[in-house]
Design goal:
By secondary structure, this protein is mainly alpha-helical. It has helices at residues 13-29, 40-53, 67-79, 82-97. Helix 1 runs antiparallel to helix 4. The N and C termini lie far apart (75 Å).
Length: 167
Amino acid sequence: MQPSRPYPIDLSDARWELIRPTLEAWRQARNGIRKPTHDLRGLMNAILYVDRTGIPWRYLPHDFPPHQTVYGYFALWEADGIFDQLTGLLRGKVRQTEGRTSEPSACLIDSQSIKTSATVHLASQGIAPPRKSSDASGTSSPTPSASCWPWPSPPPASTTPPPAPNS
């Protein structure tokens, strides 16, 4: 049988050498009774193939390990934080190559996701007033218009309490 040709997504030798120690350490930590039957590089190549092509796991080509095995390793690596470790490792390598420290020194937070305090006066919260619009009403609404909202508007909130259940 001829060896299979590599896929364009397959890890190069240099890239494999960057992540190999992390995956081998993970495998050593989980060393059990049964000897592993699949190569870690082949498993990672299969995961990258699914990620790049977007195919379902069961459609993996036959020259990769069985799809159940590949998905099993993917799920374990995700649960054990291996992908987060690899992301941090590779980010640090890129930063060092660029002449920076391996760990970032600052963090950006999306200002839309932070709630302002109820005890801070509204004028000092930094919230801009609504802008004037060019439509007939002369003001803009803070909620999206019906033309750009992808689902129907929710029913208006009722001010009357719901009826008590019969007991």
